[in-house]
Amino acid sequence: MAVIKTGRFTHSQNWLRADISQLFDTEDLNSDTADRLERSLQQWCGEFIETPRDVIRLMNSLRLNFLPVKGRVDPGDMVFLEMVRIKNNALFNWIEEYVSNLSAIGDWGYVLPGAHERLGASLLVAIDAEGSERDQFIYALREHLPGLDLASLNQDGEEFKVFDLSESDQLRSFSASKRLASPNHYSLYFSFSSPSGSISDFVLDQFLSACAEKPEIALARFRQLVGSKRPQGGRLAEVLLDRILGVSGRIGVSQIHGLFSVLGEAIDDLAPVAKTYSGYPQFLRGNRQEVFGLIVNMKDPEQRKNTLQTLFTEAKSLAWLAGIVREAIFEHGVFGHRAEPEDARLLSTEEFELVRDIFLNRLTGLPPEELMEVPQFLSLMITWQQTGDTEGARNWIADQTTTDPGLLNVLQKMMSWSDSSAHGVQYKLRINTLDTFFGGHSLVQDRLMRIAADDRVGTDDRSLASKMLRNLDDDMR
Fold first, then answer.
1. How far apart are CA 392 and CA 363, in angstroms?
2. Number of domains comprising the chain
3. Is the pLDDT of residue 246 over 70?
4. Stronger pLDDT, 27 or 455, i.e. the higher one
5. Hey, which bits of 46-140 come out as E strands?
6. Triad 234, 237, 239: Cα angle to 5°
7. Computed from CA positions of residues 293, 298, 299, 301, in that sequence, does the dihedral angle turn out positive or negative?
8. For the chain, how far is it from start to end, CA to CA, in angstroms?
9. C-alpha count within 13 angstroms, C-beta hemisphere, residue 52
């Protein structure tokens, strides 16, 4: 690449300045923003704008990529980035990866070993320059991209490093000016260049590393992803789980132990907002095809026992634990008709008995109001019953439904998902559910009819009872 040229502008560059002034309404920019725009033009026009065709291409790119986000990005950074986009695709792709990773570093607070050198080396390839020409280019890049360690270029035995940040909060200073390196704004600069709603390899590796080394940071990041909606629907945390499954063969024991700790704390938070299949999030299933299947990577029996005991003793995500236990119930032939041979089971007999016993003790030991807040509550109760403790599950339901409000509250939690072409998605009270847990569907129906017709019952409860009657299976009405 040529040495960056500054100074007098050519005819094409003056033409560009006039068009940019009009597109960006430069008279309305504050002084700091206007100064950054001027510096970008001074620094980069000589490098990237040589012909009238370059001006046309740049202005077309700016109209496409800047106008939709006008007022939400920094003009100087956007002009620089669009110049790079039209003239150096390798550098553009590097910048996109770098600012995305900078944002992740802001979340994690640390950098994976080797990331400094790997990204530094790929930047030098994209620049394709040597000596003072290379140094001058990198020095100019630092106006837009923090963390480029120019000093490391000229130290014997040192590799060029990036991500050279004094602290993660350093990135936050870019947010106020809506800069390219701002964790809150960088994606706006690439709105038309890459699919949104994805998880990069860097973020995936960073998360798995944090699970092993800094699980509290991994947990905070997972919760952020639970709250991040995708344009395609669902949440970014679901994409993370899918990406984890895609690299399952290389995930180590310490990462799995930490991952289970993170998911045990927060995966239930994802369940109510995630995409579902027949009303149930697939990642809650405790089979080989979902995230719990990573347990197969743990070969040492003591390590497995320790991980399982910790998970089932400490995890808050009881819906996930229920999914794990329920799959084991079927594999071990405790319920149903699809028992697996012993060598094909995900959990050994000893492991299954361990997690089942801890799970049941936790169900009976929790305050009822906490248990009823577990996502997929009906599935939780069915799992309890299918462990063989049908009486325990029924007694628990009986204790919570002695009053009319208690009955209505529990019934709301135990409706089943259904979908039909005629009525769409509905939630119904199934005959089997009422017979299994409430002593008979006719008893429930009679009680609901009494509540709905009793003038002494509050209006809200009478209305809810009527709604429940409408939600009974069609065979019961």
1. 10
2. 2
3. yes
4. 455
5. none
6. 75
7. negative
8. 79
9. 1
Of the candidates 187, 171, 229, 172, the one whose C-alpha atom is nearest the C-alpha of residue 72 is 187
Instruction: Please give the C-alpha separations between residue 327 and each of 9, 262, 290, 390, in angstroms, as whole numbers.
Output: 70, 21, 11, 17
| DSSP 8-state symbol, 229 | B
**The tokens of 398 are what?**
């009986």
Name the helix (H) or strand (E) containing 416.
Answer: strand 416-420
Residues 179, 193: contact at Cβ < 8 Å?
A: no
Classify the C-alpha dihedral 132-134-135-140 as positive or negative. positive
Full residue range of the structural domain in which residue 459 is found: 401-476
> What tokens were used for 74?
């920094």
Residue 466 half-sphere exposure toward CB, CA atoms < 13 A: 10
pLDDT of residue 28: 86
* Domain end among 87, 107, 123: 87
**Alpha carbons 185 and 73: distance in angstroms, whole number:** 7
Contact 252, 294 (CB under 8 A): no
pLDDT value, residue 382: 97
- Is the separation of the CB atoms in 182 and 174 below 8 Å? yes
The verdict on residue 29 lying in a domain is yes
H/E stretch holding 25 reads none
CB atoms within 10 A of CB 431: 17
Two tokens at 222? 């997972």
User: What amino acid occupies position 421?
Assistant: S
- Compare 197 and 190 and report the one with higher pLDDT: 190
Question: 323-340, pLDDT tens digit by residue?
Answer: 999 999 999 999 988 899
Residue type at position 340: E
194 part of a folded domain: no
pLDDT at 80: 97
> Which residues lie below 8 Å from residue 163, measured CB to CB, with a gap of 6+?
101, 102, 105, 111, 115, 116, 119, 147
Amino acid of residue 86: I
Q: What is the distance between the alpha carbons of residues 143 and 36, in angstroms, rounded to a whole number?
A: 9
Residues 9-52 pLDDT 10s: 678 888 898 999 999 988 789 999 999 999 999 999 989 998 88
3-state secondary structure of 427: strand
Question: Are 172 and 183 spatial neighbours (Cβ–Cβ below 8 Å)?
Answer: yes
Identify the weakest region by mean pLDDT among 109-123, 230-244, 271-285: 109-123
Model-wide pTM > 0.90:
no
Is there a contact between 376 and 280 (Cβ–Cβ < 8 Å)?
Answer: yes
Residue 459 has phi, psi (to 5 degrees) of -60, -45
Single out the residue in 87, 122, 140 at which a domain terminates: 87
Does residue 391 form part of some domain?
no
- Pull the structure tokens for residue 348: 């050994």
Above 70 in pLDDT, residue 472?
yes
- Tokens standing for 271? 């369940």
Q: Tell me the pLDDT band of 424, cut-offs 50, 70 and 90.
A: low
Is there a domain that residue 470 lies in? yes
162: number of Cβ within 10 Å: 26
